[in-house]
Amino acid sequence: MTQKESNDAPAARLQGLTKHFPTFELGPLDLTLERGTVVALVGPNGAGKTTTLNCMAGLVVPDAGTVEIFGETVGPNQTSYRRNLGYVGEGSGFFQRWTVDRNLDHLARLLPGWSSARAVQLTRRFGLPRDKAVRDLSTGNRAKLALVAALARGSRLLLLDEPTAGLDPVVRAEVLDVLWEVTEDGEHAVLYSTHVLSDISRLADELVFLRDGRVIQRSGREELAESWRRVSFRLPDQTVDLIGVVEHRRLQNDHQVITRSATATLELLSDLGAEGVETARMTIEEIAVQILKEGHDVASPAS
Amino acid sequence: MWQALRAELAYLRPWLLGGLGIAVAVMALVSVIFATFGGPPAVAASAIRAMFPLAACLIVAFIVQAYHKDERRALLFLAGPVTPRQLAMVRVLIPLALGICGMLVAALILSVDSAITGSVAFETLQIVGYVGGQLLLYTQMGLLIQEAVVSARQRRRSAALAGWATLFGGAILLTVVTFAALASQGPSTWPSLHGANLIASAILMVVTVRLYTGRTDFTH
């Protein structure tokens, strides 16, 4: 049954998504991606990031649960949702012996909504050698080509699986620039998985932390940046049990803690009469690493 | 679906032309050897010459299957308005298209033979047709084996079982029909052999399409 796209539906909605593998189980996963948001899927290897994206793209059939893209059900035999979806994952399916231009020509014929002008503009912007065979392209150029294909079809939801993996810093910055421009209009939603945590602070509005196939935390970037702090203080002759602390180091009377509830921790320290309290902001990368390290301890209800 | 099939056929064109080029060169060499040193009877010589393009097309079909898998073409087509069923049909239609191409080139060679020698024996046409049918069958067997293996990996046991059962059941049935047709040696022998090839190929194609459509993972 083909569903019509709904005007007020979120960009993507996952409900009870479950997929079993012999050594791994994804879900049940519930996740909503609003229009115009950029969400980073963060997790260690084998957390389920790629499987989640593949299920959303209709490339992997879940054992249970549903995926909707702009209100349209995703399934291998459904095709209407795909016009709103651009997917960049491991492998692209391009004709490797054909040139970039020939592949783009083929896509223009295959994909409804394709904009050749946009494709040309993006290939120029990325400096893609259009007369070179895809198999002769560098890893970075292949990633750029996949991104061109995803963007030139006018998709309103981009699923990006490690889009900057294997790219040198300059190319990564270019790719992130383009993604930044694309999402600036507030129309495009992006869900991307990454190991490169520095990408997160540049792009993501929200972070979804996956571990062992489950969402362990979902938070806004600003919210995380405001609530996590590194706090150092002096508290003589006292054993302290602080709220929200995920890491605590002590050298005699000098303490250094990492807290995910800065306000509560500072209030308690004030009540305890701690001296020399100093706080330092943490980068999103540092926070992400802490959350993933302490995943099971800091788990909070996923939205 | 037709756009996908057209693209695949355009992609394999260099291999096809190269393969046919080599086949024609080898065929010419064989013809020179036959003419110089004496070869088999005219019936067999014609049939042998016509086999080269058929074999070239079979090899190209296997090469294309490998590339299709290596380049993970499904990812490209399933991003567009192509369903897995249509993609599966593209996969089984490519060897068919190549088989038809091989048969056309073989027919051309036989026509040239006919023009030179005055006539081509009825048996020659039948032998070439039979070999063409067999080669089509082998390429379809390759695809079905691939799907049966994928089904087993995806823990779709009944699908895998159906694939292997079709393969072995078909092979046994085909062998029986072939022996029965050869034993009868009547006017129905060749039609039976051709019919068995075509029906077996069609069954393999249908089962392959069904198994592919039932995949739970299209990323590999």
List unreliable stretches of 5+ residues of chain B: none
Order of helices and strands of chain A: EEEHEEEHHHEHEHEEHEEEHEHH
**CATH class of the largest domain in chain A, please?**
Alpha Beta
Share of helix among residues of chain A?
25-40%
Q: Helical element count of chain B?
A: 7
Largest interface (C-beta under 8 Å)? A-B, 31 and 28 residues
How many extended strands of chain A?
A: 14
User: In angstroms, what separates the terminal alpha carbons of chain A?
Assistant: 29 Å
Helix/strand class of chain B = mainly alpha
Enumerate how many helices of chain A there are, as a single number: 10
How helical, in percent, are the residues of chain B?
A: over 70%
| Oligomeric nature of the chains | heterodimer
- Global mean pLDDT of chain A: 85
Description:
The complex is a heterodimer of chains A (303) and B (220). With 303 residues, chain A is of the alpha/beta class. Chain A has two domains: 210 residues, 3-Layer(aba) Sandwich (Rossmann fold), CATH 3.40.50.300; 53 residues, no CATH class. Chain A has a six-stranded mixed sheet, with helices on both faces. A four-stranded antiparallel sheet of chain A has the order 2-1-4-5, covered by helices on one side. In chain A, helix 3 packs antiparallel against helix 4 and helix 4 packs parallel to helix 5. Chain B has 220 residues and is mostly helical. Chain B has one domain. Chain B is globular, with a radius of gyration of 19 Å. The chains are: A alpha/beta (303), B mainly alpha (220). At the A-B interface, helix 2 of A face helix 1 and helix 3 of B.
